[in-house]
Specification:
By secondary structure, the chain is α/β, with parallel strands linked by helices. The chain has two domains: about 5-75; about 80-275, no CATH class. Helices cover about 35% and strands about 20% of the residues. The chain has helices spanning about 5-10, 15-50, 55-60, 65-70, 105-120, 155-160, 225-245; strands at about 85-90, 125-130, 145, 165-170, 175-180, 185, 200-210, 215-220, 250-260, 265-270, 275. The strands form two sheets. Strands 1, 2, 3, 7, 8, 9, 10 and 11 form an eight-stranded mixed sheet that branches. The chain starts with a helix and ends with a strand.
């Protein structure tokens, strides 16, 4: 008998037992999902390295039919780009004026909703929350996806400061920009030009938590259309991104051309390489 089953057998209160078993079943289902994701990823990696499915089946002691079934079913390996088991998607609350009521930007709502849909489609559990106007955010959690720039949160500003390649900068007399320290190029939003134009810059990265025990997936635009553009990239090119950076720490910038009326991305392109922070 497993340790859990033995523990459950000792619970006399039926409601406590019901809660305990329900929670354990949820944990078990997440574990099964992630094991299936890992197994499918192994098969895909072996095939990408030149092995035929027949060779994989023979070496693993499985039938060819079973290998094909694994390849075609189960959660996609690229889901682990977002998180393992489940994710928490945090978007910011805002105040447009000191005495104004708290609001949520429409673009932030859209970004959060599209990330939720993407994560669920990949077999991940999803929770959502808001970064309060104070900017205080518990960053030391597994599976956190923060759609929040440095302007909205000092905690996030400190997190972005751990990026060894890309720097958020704001002079006293100017708008936010993003500097690529490898090339020296400073990227600015077209929305800050005079005249303004419908182009923004988005940041995507996976950066260390303050406690050093994990990584945070971070998304931000110089303005909100930049975040929408990053989410567009994730929705449409997640497998390619995962293939290049896996679950490692990294960062990159994207250029986002958008509809000036709806802020919907029209064209999203990488402005920088996908910088792996381990130097690979």
């Amino acid at each position: 008998m497993s340790v859990d089953l033995a523990r459950f057998a000792e619970i006399d209160d039926p409601f406590e037992l019901l809660r305990a078993v329900t929670a354990r079943l949820a944990d078990a289902q997440r574990e099964v999902t992630e094991l299936a994701r890992l197994r499918r990823g192994v098969v895909q990696d072996l095939h990408a390295k030149g092995m035929s499915y027949a060779q994989i089946a023979d070496a693993a002691g499985l039938s060819r039919g079973r290998i094909h079934q694994i390849r075609q079913s189960g959660p996609a390996p690229e889901g682990s780009f977002l998180g393992v088991g489940g994710v928490v998607i945090a978007t910011p609350l805002r105040k447009d004026a000191p005495d104004a009521r708290t609001v949520v930007a429409v673009d932030d709502v859209t970004s959060g909703k599209r990330l939720e849909d993407l994560a669920r489609s990949l077999g991940l559990d999803v929770a959502s929350e808001h970064v309060p106007v104070s900017g205080d955010l518990d960053l030391n959690r597994d599976g956190l996806i923060a759609v929040c720039g440095p302007r909205m949160s000092a905690d996030m500003e400190a997190t972005y400061g751990r990026d060894p390649v890309l720097r958020w900068e704001k002079p006293d007399d100017g708008p936010w920009t993003l500097r690529d320290t490898r090339t020296g190029i400073v990227h600015r939003s077209g929305m800050d030009d005079d005249p303004s134009r419908p182009q923004d810059v988005g940041y995507l990265g996976r950066l260390p938590r303050p406690d050093g025990k994990g990584l945070i997936l971070t998304i931000a635009g110089i303005h909100t259309p930049g975040s929408l553009g990053v989410v567009h990239l994730l929705v449409n090119d997640l497998a390619a991104l995962f293939g290049r950076v896996g679950s490692h720490a990294f960062s990159t910038l994207v250029s986002v051309d958008f509809d000036p009326d709806t802020h919907e991305p029209r064209n999203v392109e990488l402005l920088t390489p996908l910088y792996r922070h381990d130097g690979s």
